[in-house]
Design a protein that fits this description.
Blueprint (H helix, E strand, L loop, with lengths): L1 H5 L3 H13 L7 H10 L14 H29 L3 H25 L7 H8 L2 H33 L3 H10 L15 H15 L6 H22 L17 H12 L7 H5 L7 H30 L10 H8 L3 H23 L1 H11 L18 H17 L2 H26 L15 H9 L3 H4 L1 H5 L28 H8 L2 H9 L10 H30 L4 H25 L17 H15 L3 H25 L1 H20 L12 H6 L9 H13 L4 H6 L9 H8 L18
C-alpha cells in the first residue's frame, strides 16, 4: 500500500482511493450471487421457489419483532427509563421505524434479483465503503440480537424456576463488574448454552421454515389476547395518577424510544427473504408497513396492561409479563404467558441468527471480509464457518453482557444502518439515470416519449389549474396520474394540490426555484445533492447534540447561547433541504417509491440521529470501538482484496498487454468493435460518482463533439446503456483504443 501511494501524487492518490471507496457492483453480477446466498440453506442447485405471499412476509416480520420486544423491552423501558410513558416511547419509535421502513422498501425494489440485504442494495447502487459500513452494522444487529434472544430465554427460564438458576450462578461463580451500568451481572452459562445450541441447529441446515414460524406466531397471538383479556381484571388506575405516568419526564420518554427502536427492527428480514416472495416488488413494502403497524398495536396494548397492573418501580426487568400475573397470585396466567414467551423468543432468536451468516458470507464472497468465511460445508451446504464464528461471538456476549446493555447497543447500530439507508435513497433519487435497462425502470421507448413530450406540461398548465387530468398522462411504465410531476414537492396527489392552490401552484414553484417536470438530473445537480445530503447527515447530529447537551442539560447563558446556535443550525438544515428540492429528480419509476421525497428521508435522518444521541455514553463507546474495528478490517484488508479490486487489476493487466502488442497497428484500424462495450462496463464501478469523474477525465476530448448529444440524452454522460455505446462507437472513423472508443472528430 505504501509503495503504491508513493508512486502517485497527492491528487492522484486521493482520486484513486475515492474511486475505490465509491465503486459499485454491476447489477448483472447479482443474479448468481443472489442464488448462491438463497440456495445455501437448502443445499439445492437452484434458487428458492417463489412461494411466499404477503401474509407470509408479514408473519416473518411480526415474529422477528414481537418476541424480545413484547416480552422483554416493554418491561425494561417501563422500569428504568420511562415508566408508563413507555406507551409514548413505543409510538415515537414506531414513527421512526415507519420513516426508515418506507426508505428501506424503496431501496429493496431498486435492485432486481437480490436476497434483499441492505448491504447488497448499497453495494449495487451507492458504493463499496457505504456498503461495508452498512453490512458491518447489520452484523452487529444480528450478533447482539442473537445474544439478547438467548439472554431473554435464560431470564424466562430463571423466572419459571423462581430465580434459582441466577442465585446458583451468583453463589458459585460470583458476579462481574464493569459490564453493566453500575449493576452486578453474573456469567449467564444458560444463555451461552442456548446460543451455542441454536448456532449448531442453523449450521446443520435446519431452516426457519415459514410453517414453523406461522405456528409459533399463532401461539404468540393467542397468548397476547389472553394477556389483554385476563389483565383487565387486575387493573389499577392509581398506577398512572399523581405524576406517575411520566416519572422520568419527556427526556425519559425519548430515551426509552431510542431503546424501543430495538423492538421494530425485524422488518429487514422481510427484505432479506424477498427472493422467495411471489411478487417481491409489491409484497415487500406492504409487508413492512403491515408488520410495523401490527407490532405497534401489540406493544402499546401490552404496555397499557403492564403499567396498570403493576407500579412501574415494581416491574420485573427480566420477565415482566410473566411476573405481572405472579404479583397478583394468578400463577396459571404466569405459566400461560411462559408458553408464549418460549414461542416468541425462539422465533426472535432464530430470526436474528439465521440471516447473519448470509450477510457475512456475502461480504466475504465480495472480498470485504476474510475469504475463509465463505467456506461452505459439503455435508450441510451451509456457510458453516460463518455460522460457527458469528454464533460463538454471540454466545460470549450472552455470557458476559447484561440484557439491558445488549438491547441498547443493538439499537444504536441499527439506527445508524437505517439512517444510511435513508441517505442512500435521498442520493439516488437525484442522480442521473444509470441502469435504465432493468425490468423495473422505464424503457428506452418511454425515454423517447418523455423527450418528445418535453414541452407538453407547460402547454397544459392552465388546463390543470381547472382540474383536468390531461397532463397526468402516463409516459412512464407503471406510472399513475401525476407521477410525471415533481412528486418530491407535494404531500398528496399532484392534481389535488394544483386544484387547491389554483394559479398560485406554479407561482409558488417558480419562487421556490423548483424545476419543472421536463428537467432531468445532470452530473452537476447530482453532485449538489450529494454535498447537501452529506451535510444534512452530519449537521443533524451536530444540531441534536447542541439541543440535548446544550439546551436540555444546560442552564443560564450557556443554554441561551446553545439555543441560538441550534436555531442557526435549523435554518441551515432548512436551506440544505431547499437546495435539494431545487434539483431535478430522476425520472426512473419504481414499483414502490418512498413518498414525499426529500421530506421523508430527511425526517428519518433527523429522528434517527436524535434517538441515537439519547442512548448512553457507554453504548456510544462500545459502538465506536466496533466501528473502528470494522474500519481497520476494511482499510487493511477489504479495500485491497475486494472482488472489484481484483477484477480491475486483471483488466488493467490485460489492457497493458493489449497496448504492448498494439503499438505498431495503424491508428485508423479497430481490431474488434465489440470490445468497446466491455470497457464501458468498467466505469459503473464508481457508481453515482462516475459522471463527475468521467467529465473531469474526458472533458477535453469529448466536451465539444458531444455537447449537443449530451443535452439530448443525459444517460450517455457516464451511464451508457447498450444502445448508447453503439452510438458512440459506431462513428465513421475510430481512433483505435484511445478515449474508450469515443470519436475524436465531429460527425
Amino acid at each position: 500500500m505504501a509503495a503504491w501511494l508513493g508512486r502517485l501524487s497527492p491528487g492522484e492518490a486521493w482520486f484513486a482511493m475515492s474511486s475505490r471507496l465509491l465503486r459499485t457492483k454491476p447489477v448483472g453480477s447479482m443474479g448468481r450471487g443472489a442464488d448462491d446466498l438463497t440456495e445455501l440453506p437448502d443445499g439445492s442447485g437452484v434458487g428458492l421457489a417463489k412461494v411466499l405471499t404477503t401474509l407470509d412476509l408479514v408473519s416473518l416480520g411480526v415474529g422477528s419483532c414481537v418476541g424480545t420486544g413484547m416480552y422483554v423491552v416493554a418491561g425494561l423501558v417501563a422500569k428504568a427509563m420511562a415508566g408508563p410513558g413507555v406507551i409514548l416511547s413505543f409510538i415515537i419509535a414506531a414513527v421512526a421505524s415507519i420513516l426508515s421502513g418506507v426508505c428501506y422498501a424503496e431501496f429493496g425494489v431498486r435492485v432486481p434479483k437480490t436476497t434483499g440485504s441492505a448491504y447488497t442494495y448499497s453495494y449495487v447502487t451507492v458504493g463499496e465503503f457505504v456498503a461495508f459500513f452498512i453490512g458491518w452494522n447489520l452484523i452487529l444487529e444480528y450478533l447482539i440480537g442473537t445474544a439478547a434472544g438467548a439472554s431473554a430465554l435464560s431470564s424466562m427460564f430463571d423466572s419459571l424456576a423462581n430465580h434459582s438458576i441466577s442465585n446458583y450462578m451468583i453463589t458459585h461463580l460470583g458476579t462481574l463488574r464493569g459490564l453493566g451500568k453500575g449493576e452486578d451481572t453474573y456469567p449467564d452459562l444458560l444463555a451461552l448454552f442456548i446460543a451455542l445450541l441454536v448456532t449448531v441447529i442453523i449450521a446443520l441446515g435446519v431452516k426457519n421454515s415459514v410453517g414453523f414460524n406461522n405456528v409459533l406466531n399463532v401461539v404468540n397471538v393467542v397468548v397476547w389476547a389472553f394477556m389483554i383479556i385476563a389483565g383487565l381484571f387486575f387493573l389499577s388506575a392509581s398506577n398512572w395518577e399523581g405524576g406517575r405516568f411520566l416519572p422520568y419526564g419527556w427526556s425519559g420518554v425519548m430515551k426509552g424510544a431510542a431503546t424501543c427502536f430495538y423492538a421494530f427492527i425485524g422488518f429487514d428480514i422481510i427484505a432479506t427473504t424477498g427472493e422467495e416472495a411471489k411478487n417481491a416488488n409489491t409484497s415487500i413494502p406492504y409487508a413492512i408497513t403491515a408488520s410495523l403497524v401490527t407490532c405497534l398495536t401489540a406493544y402499546v396494548s401490552v404496555s397499557v396492561i403492564l403499567t396498570l397492573m403493576v407500579p412501574y418501580n415494581l416491574i420485573d426487568g427480566s420477565a415482566p409479563l410473566m411476573e405481572m400475573f405472579a404479583v397478583h397470585g394468578f400463577m396459571w396466567g404466569k405459566y400461560t404467558v411462559a408458553v408464549g414467551s418460549i414461542a416468541g423468543l425462539t422465533v426472535s432468536l432464530l430470526g436474528s441468527l439465521f440471516p447473519m451468516p448470509r450477510v457475512i458470507y456475502a461480504m466475504a464472497r465480495d472480498g470485504l471480509l476474510f475469504r475463509f468465511l465463505t467456506h461452505v460445508s459439503a455435508l450441510t451446504h451451509t456457510p458453516a464457518v460463518a455460522c460457527v464464528v458469528s454464533g460463538s461471538f454471540a454466545a460470549v456476549l450472552a455470557l458476559l453482557v447484561s440484557l439491558r446493555d445488549l438491547i441498547e447497543m443493538m439499537s444504536i447500530g441499527t439506527l445508524l444502518a437505517y439512517t444510511l439507508v435513508s441517505v442512500c435513497v435521498l442520493l439516488l433519487r437525484y442522480q442521473p439515470d444509470k441502469d435504465t435497462d432493468t425490468h423495473q425502470f422505464i424503457s428506452e421507448e418511454d425515454v423517447d416519449n418523455v423527450k418528445d413530450a418535453g414541452d407538453e406540461p407547460t402547454k397544459d398548465d392552465h388546463i390543470m389549474m381547472e382540474g383536468s387530468d390531461r397532463d397526468g398522462s402516463s409516459y412512464h411504465a407503471g406510472g399513475t396520474e401525476g407521477e410525471a410531476d415533481d412528486s418530491h414537492f407535494h404531500t398528496g396527489p399532484p392534481s389535488l394540490l394544483k386544484r387547491l392552490l389554483g394559479g398560485h401552484y406554479y407561482t409558488l414553484r417558480l419562487r421556490l426555484g423548483i424545476p419543472d417536470s421536463t428537467a432531468r438530473p445532470t452530473p452537476a445537480s447530482g453532485r449538489i445533492v450529494t454535498r447537501c445530503t452529506l451535510s444534512l447527515f452530519f449537521m443533524s447530529f451536530l444540531f441534536w447534540s447542541t439541543v440535548i447537551f446544550g439546551v436540555e442539560q444546560g442552564s443560564g447563558a450557556a443554554a441561551v447561547f446553545s439555543g441560538l446556535m441550534a436555531t442557526l443550525m435549523l435554518g441551515s438544515l432548512a436551506r440544505l433541504l431547499m437546495l435539494i428540492m431545487q434539483q431535478p429528480e430522476s425520472k426512473q419509476r419504481l414499483p414502490y417509491m418512498a413518498p414525499c421525497v426529500p421530506f421523508v428521508p430527511a425526517a428519518a435522518i433527523l429522528v434517527n440521529s436524535y434517538l441515537m444521541l439519547k442512548l448512553s455514553s457507554l453504548t456510544w463507546a462500545r459502538f465506536t470501538i466496533w466501528c473502528l474495528i470494522g474500519l481497520l478490517i476494511y482499510g487493511c484488508y477489504g479495500v485491497w482484496h475486494s472482488t472489484l479490486e481484483l477484477d480491475a487489476r486483471e483488466q488493467q493487466a490485460h489492457a497493458s498487454s493489449y497496448r504492448r502488442y498494439d503499438d505498431n497497428l495503424d491508428d485508423t484500424f479497430s481490431p474488434d468493435d465489440d470490445l468497446y462495450p466491455q470497457e464501458q462496463d468498467e466505469r459503473p464501478y464508481q457508481g453515482w460518482s462516475a459522471p463527475e469523474e468521467s467529465r473531469h477525465r474526458h472533458q477535453n476530448q469529448e466536451e465539444e463533439p458531444y455537447e449537443s448529444q449530451a443535452e439530448d440524452d443525459g444517460e450517455q454522460q457516464g451511464y451508457q446503456s447498450g444502445a448508447g455505446v453503439q452510438n458512440l462507437t459506431g462513428g465513421s472513423r475510430s481512433r483505435g483504443r484511445t478515449n474508450f472508443g469515443f470519436d475524436d472528430e465531429d460527425d
